[in-house]
């Protein structure tokens, strides 16, 4: 039994790696292929009469760890300077406005057609409005640097804002002045914790001489995230700020504390830390989407009661995105199509209190929206002319 599990696990991870390295040629996001592998495994197991394994309790854990590593990986790659400020503004705008507008439209529809309260309607609508960094970031590896940076920022901010928005609505009985004051206090606390955590973890990277140093630091990052999340603080903001800070040490040379730090040595350690983070993110991401595909029921994909709503929601989401890109003066191809739903949608959906759940927002709707948005992204990436990308790369050189 143990040997079978090892063979299966290693084979699946090697298949995932093959998908990852061939996606540059095929332009098909590896997540779609991973979902197909997981779903195919389940169908083969059913055909052969094997007992199915229940991964429902493992998926939220993998999703959380994967989200941490993916946002950390993306933020470590981003370089900050004054020239990035316009891009940051557009990224925040791209994450915030479409989410608020789509959530408002869906909440009104749930309220009007289902006679649910606006609070319950919003709680069920928000998970459908968040762009998944776990799917978007790995899928844009072949885009030019400006497009890639926009997607990394936008999807990371979308995850953070989505979690903040969801928790704010779900945890407050009434949306009064006290609720907004408490929300502002949480953000201030989060910024202070992020600064302290960044300094502390940077010191560890610089001072630890033991041959095992990066895994303990990653575990500490996950631990801090979990503790902050337990207190309903925007924990993902800590991950983003930490990655941006240690990935942009040159911007902090004027700070007195950094004068006592060997930044050259620290840069080498950060490079190694980034490599381990990238490989860890690949492993967890691949495992999550294979297992998520394994949990998908064929009947849920083909559910006719929700497919119209899924297509309508995805269509409205991309119409709103087109308007946002127009305002931000971005080309539609391929950015218009890169707005997948994924990890955060699943996590927030699972976080809805059963008493607040709207019957329409069920497993079928979630799965159909995730698959439709991923397929649209794949079509957009495939349709992007290779010649255009090559010319951009040449001009950059």
Describe this structure in words.
- The protein has 397 residues and is an all-alpha fold.
- It has one domain: Na+/H+ antiporter like fold.
- The chain is 75% helix and 0% strand.
- It has 16 helices and no strands.
- The chain has helices at residues 2-26, 30-48, 58-77, 85-114, 118-125, 133-139, 145-171, 177-207, 214-230, 235-246, 263-295, 298-301, 304-327, 343-351, 363-383, 386-396.
- Helix 2 (30-48) packs parallel to helix 11 and helix 13 packs across helix 15.
- The longest helix is centred in the C-terminal third of the chain and has 33 residues, at 263-295.
- Residues 387-397 have low confidence and may be disordered.
Task: Quickly describe the structure.
This protein has 397 residues and is an all-alpha fold. Helices cover 75% and strands 0% of the residues.
Structural class: mainly alpha
Please estimate the helix content.
Answer: over 70%
What pattern of helices and strands is seen along the backbone? HHHHHHHHHHHHHHHH
Poorly predicted runs are 387-397
How many domains comprise the coordinates? Answer: 1
Q: Note the main sheet.
A: none
The Rg value, from CA coordinates, equals 21 Å
Q: Total helix count?
A: 16
Shape: globular
Second-tier CATH architecture: Up-down Bundle
CATH topology, by name, is Na+/H+ antiporter like fold
Distance between the termini: 53 Å
CATH domain class name: Mainly Alpha
Mean pLDDT: 83
Number of separate strands: 0
Beta-strand residue percentage: under 5%
Which features does this protein show?
397 residues; mainly alpha; 75% helix; globular; disordered C terminus
């Amino acid at each position: 039994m143990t040997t079978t599990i090892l063979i299966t696990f290693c084979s699946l991870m090697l298949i995932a790696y093959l998908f990852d390295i061939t996606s540059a040629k095929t332009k098909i996001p590896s997540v779609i292929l991973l979902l197909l592998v997981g779903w195919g495994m389940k169908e083969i197991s059913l055909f052969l009469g094997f007992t199915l394994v229940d991964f429902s309790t493992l998926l939220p854990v993998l999703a959380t760890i994967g989200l941490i590593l993916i946002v950390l990986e993306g933020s470590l790659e981003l370089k900050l300077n004054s020239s990035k400020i316009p891009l940051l503004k557009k990224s925040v705008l791209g994450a915030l406005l479409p989410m608020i507008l789509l959530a408002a439209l869906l909440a009104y529809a749930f309220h009007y057609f289902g006679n649910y309260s606006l609070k319950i309607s919003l709680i069920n609508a928000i998970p459908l409005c968040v762009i998944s960094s776990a799917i978007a970031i790995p899928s844009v590896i072949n885009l030019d640097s400006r497009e890639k940076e926009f997607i990394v920022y936008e999807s990371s901010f979308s995850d953070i804002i989505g979690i903040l928005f969801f928790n704010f609505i779900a945890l407050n009985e009434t949306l009064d002045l006290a609720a907004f004051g408490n929300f502002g206090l949480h953000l201030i606390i989060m910024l202070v914790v992020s600064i302290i955590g960044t300094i502390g973890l940077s010191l560890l990277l610089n001072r630890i001489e033991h041959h095992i140093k990066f895994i303990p630091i990653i575990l500490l990052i996950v631990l801090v995230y979990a503790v902050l999340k337990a207190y309903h603080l925007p924990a993902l903001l800590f991950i983003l700020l930490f990655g941006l800070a240690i990935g942009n040490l040159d911007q902090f040379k004027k700070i007195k504390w950094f004068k006592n730090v060997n930044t050259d040595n620290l840069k080498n350690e950060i490079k190694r830390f980034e490599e381990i983070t990238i490989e860890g993110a690949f492993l967890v991401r691949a495992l999550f989407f294979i297992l998520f595909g394994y949990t998908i029921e064929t009947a849920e994909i083909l559910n006719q009661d929700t497919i119209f709503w899924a297509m309508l929601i995805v269509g409205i989401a991309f119409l709103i995105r087109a308007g946002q890109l127009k305002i931000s003066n971005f080309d539609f191809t391929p950015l218009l199509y890169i707005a997948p739903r994924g990890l955060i949608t699943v996590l927030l959906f699972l976080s809805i209190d059963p008493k607040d759940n709207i019957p329409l927002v069920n497993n079928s709707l979630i799965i159909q929206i995730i698959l439709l948005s991923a397929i649209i992204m794949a079509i957009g990436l495939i349709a992007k002319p290779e010649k255009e990308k090559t010319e951009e790369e040449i001009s950059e050189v």
